[in-house]
Write a structure and sequence with these properties.
The protein is α/β, with parallel strands linked by helices. It has 12 helices and 14 strands. The chain has helices spanning 16-26, 34-47, 58-68, 85-93, 112-118, 138-148, 199-209, 232-243, 245-263, 294-306, 333-341, 353-373, and strands at residues 51-55, 76-80, 97-101, 123-126, 151-155, 163-164, 167-168, 175-179, 192-196, 269-270, 278-279, 285-289, 312-313, 342-345. It has a 7-stranded mixed beta sheet with strand order 1-9-8-5-4-2-3, with helices on both faces. Helix 1 (16-26) packs antiparallel against helix 8, helix 3 (58-68) packs across helix 4 and helix 9 (245-263) packs parallel to helix 12. The longest helix is centred in the C-terminal third of the chain and has 21 residues, at 353-373. The radius of gyration is 21 Å and the shape is globular. The model has no long low-confidence stretch (mean pLDDT 96). It binds pyridoxal-5'-phosphate (PLP).
Amino acid sequence: MNDFIPIAKPLFEGREAEYLQETVTTGWISSLGRFVQLFESAVANYCGTQHGISTCNGTTALQLALATIGVGPGDEVLIPTLTFIATANAVRYTGATPIFVDSDPYTLTIDPADLARRVTQRSRAVIPVHLYGHPAKMDEIRAIASQKGLFVIEDAAEAIGAEFQGRKVGSLSSLGCFSFYGNKIVTTGEGGMITTDDENLAGRARFLRDHAMSAERRYWHPEVGYNFRMTNMQAAVGVAQMERIAALVGARERIASLYSQLFADTPNLTLPPLASWARPVCWLYSIQLNGFSSTKRDTVMERLREAGIDSRPFFYPIHTMPPYISDHLASYPTAENAAACGIQLPTWPGLSDSAVYRVTESVKTILRNLSAGGS
Ligand SMILES: *Cc1c(COP(=O)(O)O)cnc(C)c1O
């Protein structure tokens, strides 16, 4: 029996344990301590923004970004339907309504034409998601947003290091949001970050993150804020991860290009997008099994599991899930079709070339057998 190949696995080859040990030894384990600020500046510098505001996870980074620009009940926020549930939930937590938008057929990120159609008087913001590591069409999105007076908040949770026209994601809008969950490109276990160039928004985000405590008067709270702080323990791991970010991103790039090379002549597969204006990062190597129903796609994943290989389906479009069905005003054919036939394959920086060979051979064999068997 071959070793089981997981879909994701963090790689700690730098000073993670050493820095973490320091937080325990010194007792600086909560949100005071040197690593929090070091991590904030490391991420901000890397993304090319003036400010980084760390949070306890990526979902709270999104919620805090929305609160920072004053989104609340009665407002609408446009988001792609094909994204992780956190994008929609963060909007819901503020009391605003998420308005779903279909996907661009090539990049699978928010479709600018559909976005423009769904803007109303109530629209306050749009959250493009750099899905699976490929940047959204930021120039078209920003043009629509400035014409309609919308804030743009990037959900860059899956895409740290990706570039749009030579600029890093997280620096392409008012506020960028990142996640450092265990399967993300940079991890702190749980963790998040807002990046911004706007000093006022940065100050407002810091204030709200810390229970809206007055800077002049400790324990005086003029508003209802949140405790969305990151701990020094998380940040310690993050600082060590950022010291090695080039290697972490580069290893994923190597794995993605090996996958693409090995799948190059496999029929009826759509490989991950690579737009001329983008330099994506590979969060999870994503393929579409052209013409497959979701049932047939699920069979492929089952057989991969029998072969000792983990995989996952694309996200279910959010407008199809119970909490959001009532918001379902129209159909979203591109997102629905991609979601039904999409799977993701093991992608993590320590994954060996021989494991990538094993995965691609298994996928090809399963697809051949399925088409021969006709089911
Ligand atoms: C992971 C993720 C988030 C949320 O991050 P958490 O740290 O898990 O809260 C938000 N949006 C997208 C697109 C994600 O993939």
